[in-house]
Amino acid sequence: MNSLKMLLRIALVVAASYVRAADPVPASAEVVARGKYLVSTSGCHDCHTPWHLTPEGPKPDFTRALSGHPEGLDMPAAPQPSQPWQMTASATNTAFAGPWGVSFTANLTPDRETGLGKWNTKTFIETIRTGRHLGRGREILPPMPVPVYQHFDDGDLGAIFAYLQSLPPIRNRVPEPRPPAAPVTAQAAAR
């Protein structure tokens, strides 16, 4: 009987690990609306929604809203910016290269495997507060304006997260950031 209880406990732990890390109380429609307003006015779509060329010029592709850098778009080595330019951006406005290396905008949709579907409000707030992925991992890289977004209060960040979680999930695996290219030395250039 004890081994049956133990097996049941193990099964519950495994099953719980697959359950969405949802917040205990779902957000109200008012909170989600506030989050939508903040996302829409804080420039989130400028980088996290891929842009495409239209007859009127480049515009966000809202069929892929907030899904980050397109999974199938392999980026070549970034051109080296020359002064006074400090960074370069892809045509989709989802990949950026500069002294930090190459950064790709994250998938902010609630897809469980490629987006924020396993996150909760606390993790989201910690990410913005610390400037680190999941609140403790690698640094969030430019051009993400973390120092600006750190001025949001927890209520605003919670509303932003509630809105992001209300979106349809889009499966889109964004590449990991690339480190800066090794500087070309005179000796290496002479080879």
Low-confidence stretches: 10-20, 186-191
Number of H/I helices:
7
Total strands: 5
SS content category: alpha+beta
Our estimate of the beta-strand percent is: 5-15%
What is the overall shape? globular
Major pleated sheet: 3 strands, antiparallel
Say what oligomer this is: single chain
**What is the N-to-C order of secondary-structure elements (H for helix, E for strand)?**
HHHEEEEEHHHH
The end-to-end distance, rounded to whole angstroms, is 73 Å
Strand arrangement within the widest β-sheet reads: 3-4-5
Radius of gyration: 20 Å
User: Percent range for helical residues?
Assistant: 25-40%
- The pLDDT mean sits at 85
Tags for this model:
single chain, 191 residues, three-stranded antiparallel β-sheet, two-stranded antiparallel ribbon, 5 strands, globular
Structure notes:
With 191 residues, the chain is of the alpha+beta class. The chain has a domain at 22-44 and 101-172. The protein has helices at 2-18, 29-41, 44-48, 121-130, 146-149, 154-166, 186-190; strands spanning 51-54, 57-60, 88-89, 95-98, 101-104. It has a three-stranded antiparallel β-sheet with strand order 3-4-5, with no helix packed on it. The protein starts with a helix and ends with a helix. Mean pLDDT is 85; it is low at 10-20 and 186-191.
Q: Gist?
A:
The chain is α+β, with helices and mostly antiparallel strands. It has helices at residues 2-18, 29-41, 44-48, 121-130, 146-149, 154-166, 186-190, and strands at residues 51-54, 57-60, 88-89, 95-98, 101-104.
Layout of strands and helices, then pairs:
Layout lengths: L1 H17 L10 H13 L2 H5 L2 E4 L2 E4 L27 E2 L5 E4 L2 E4 L16 H10 L15 H4 L4 H13 L19 H5 L1
Antiparallel strand pairs: 1-2, 3-4, 4-5
Helix pairs in contact: 2-6, 4-6
